[in-house]
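Re-running the complex after MR caught last week's input typo. The corrected sequence lines follow. Everything else is unchanged.
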Amino acid sequence: AQTVTQSQPEMSVQEAETVTLSCTYDTSENNYYLFWYKQPPSRQMILVIRQEAYKQQNATENRFSVNFQKAAKSFSLKISDSQLGDTAMYFCAFMKQPNTGNQFYFGTGTSLTVIP
Amino acid sequence: DSGVTQTPKHLITATGQRVTLRCSPRSGDLSVYWYQQSLDQGLQFLIQYYNGEERAKGNILERFSAQQFPDLHSELNLSSLELGDSALYFCASNKMGQNYGYTFGSGTRLTVV
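Corrected-run output:
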């Protein structure tokens, strides 16, 4: 079975600073995808970034980037130039490849507060 | 707009009652997933349907049931409601085998009083 662990229940960062959210996972699979979802106060679940396990290059989406360490089974999210709108709950997620059923596993989330 | 439509957005009902939550998946997506998120909790997987058939089951109570119709919309039925069933219920969809993660609806907030 796959597990996803987010060890930081809450974090805060000053506006315009950089923050890193941690995520580790446990799997015996070799092919999989990793995701970070954002859930702002509106409670909508929004995909932030995804990473294919077979790619060594870390994914980047504007101010969001990941540090993917496959051997260490670590998948951290870095948010640069933090903005007030980044205040949200962030969920790390793992998806087995190929996804033939419910092969999607979420962590318990990290609540991020951006301080003006 | 994510393309996944959930109705209603808010629902307030009394204990012992039954409610139906509706989800229309994104166009072309055959899989529908239901999740429950209680206050300050993570996402609990309830059930998955693929093209009308139940594909996977999670921690879904016997009082809860779901189905997916030929037009691919899905309904989650919650009966004999208890205070503890108050939560945000999400529907998500994707194409089986597709690797872009799930697309979530905006959720239905259920309050049982």
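None of the earlier attempt is carried over here. The radius of gyration of chain B is 13 Å. DSSP finds no helices and eleven strands in chain B.
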